[in-house]
């Protein structure tokens, strides 16, 4: 078969991929700096080239057909590979490169960023662009890798274990003004603050320390761990947080703790789509990060 027949022009493919991702000709046009009618014409030209219907109209909206969805999924990966190949060529030519890295906000500010100067000292030709994300989405090709937390069971990603997560109880020194020592029993009488995205562990923590959890007082939930830490420092209640995020505050006496850390069952990973494994900047960062976690110590 003539390979030309199997290779539509890039302009048609880009218009379709953007329209498929947004499910909108209008948003695709804004992304590609085209008019809505130009995107529509390019999609129609691609449909004519392939001899299939990629979108169907539903009122004022466009919806992918079954074959259109299949084509879009495969095409998205192919275009990402082309973009990554281009980045790779540019990076090799410049002797450096860039890495677009998604980070959990508090983990980034408390663990990675204080160490990042060591990476730059060893790799002056590489730049790491930081994006704060609670959940990383690689589908739009805007991120190269992420440091995320979970069990690592992500079949579509390559995941390298960094640190196991252990939870510690934290409290403000202000609740100890009466001179009573901080104990699990005293902590159980406080408001118990919680990060909304983290599995609840208060009953597990208190049971591990021999405290009846029947009278616990649930307190406010927070989206970010950094906000919970600030609330604890303000004396609103006590918190249960990853130890790695409060080591400096505990060392300086800004926060107090009691009991022993309890494993959460979660682990921090460097994760990225398999297609990104060849990116030079990611390879350099991965080697530095995995080589440095031993000396940096694990959580707990």
Basic shape = elongated
Radius of gyration: 25 Å
Number of domain units: 3
The strand count comes to 10
Average pLDDT score: 88
Précis, in short:
Belongs to the LysR transcriptional regulatory family. Keywords: DNA-binding, Transcription, Transcription regulation. 41% of the residues lie in helices and 23% in strands.
Task: Spell out the key features of this protein.
WH-like_DNA-bd_sf, two-stranded antiparallel ribbon, D-Maltodextrin-Binding Protein, domain 2, DNA-binding transcription factor activity, Transcriptional regulator, LysR family, 300 residues, alpha/beta, 3 domains, LysR-type_TF_proteobact-type, 11 helices, sequence-specific DNA binding, disordered C terminus, eight-stranded mixed beta sheet, Arc Repressor Mutant, subunit A
Provide a descriptive summary of the structure in words.
- Mean pLDDT is 88; it is low at 293-300.
- 30% of the residues are buried.
- This protein has three domains: 3-75, Orthogonal Bundle (Arc Repressor Mutant, subunit A); 93-164 and 267-292, D-Maltodextrin-Binding Protein, domain 2; 165-264, Periplasmic binding protein-like II (D-Maltodextrin-Binding Protein, domain 2, 3-Layer(aba) Sandwich), CATH 3.40.190.
- The N and C termini lie far apart (61 Å).
- A hairpin with a 2-residue loop joins strand 1 (55-58) and strand 2 (61-64).
- The chain has eleven helices and ten strands.
- It is α/β, with parallel strands linked by helices and 300 residues long.
């Amino acid at each position: 078969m003539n390979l030309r027949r199997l290779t539509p022009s890039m302009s048609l493919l880009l218009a379709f991929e953007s329209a498929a991702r947004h499910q909108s000709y209008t948003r695709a046009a804004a992304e590609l700096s085209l008019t809505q009618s130009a995107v529509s014409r390019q999609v129609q030209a691609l449909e004519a080239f392939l001899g299939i219907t990629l979108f169907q109209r539903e009122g004022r909206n466009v919806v992918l057909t079954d074959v259109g969805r299949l084509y879009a999924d495969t095409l998205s990966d192919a275009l990402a590979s082309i973009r990554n190949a281009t980045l790779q060529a540019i990076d090799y030519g410049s002797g450096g490169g860039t890495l677009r890295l998604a980070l959990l906000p508090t983990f980034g500010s408390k663990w990675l960023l204080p160490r990042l100067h060591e990476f730059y000292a060893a790799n002056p030709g590489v730049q790491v662009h930081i994006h704060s994300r609670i959940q990383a989405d690689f589908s739009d090709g805007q991120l190269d890798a992420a440091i995320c937390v979970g069990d690592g069971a992500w079949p579509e990603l390559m995941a390298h274990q960094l640190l196991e997560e252990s939870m510690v109880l934290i409290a403000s020194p202000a609740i100890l003004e009466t001179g009573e020592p901080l104990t699990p029993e005293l902590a159980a009488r406080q408001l118990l603050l919680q990060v909304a995205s983290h599995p609840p562990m208060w009953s597990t923590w208190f049971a591990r320390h021999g405290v009846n959890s029947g009278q616990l007082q649930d307190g406010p939930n927070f989206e970010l761990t950094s906000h919970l830490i600030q609330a604890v420092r303000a004396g609103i209640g006590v918190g249960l947080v990853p130890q790695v995020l409060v080591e400096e505050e505990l060392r300086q006496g800004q926060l107090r703790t009691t009991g022993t850390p309890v494993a959460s069952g979660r682990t921090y990973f460097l994760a990225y789509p398999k297609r990104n494994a060849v990116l030079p900047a990611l390879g350099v960062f991965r080697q530095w990060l995995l080589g440095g976690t031993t000396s940096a110590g694990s959580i707990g």
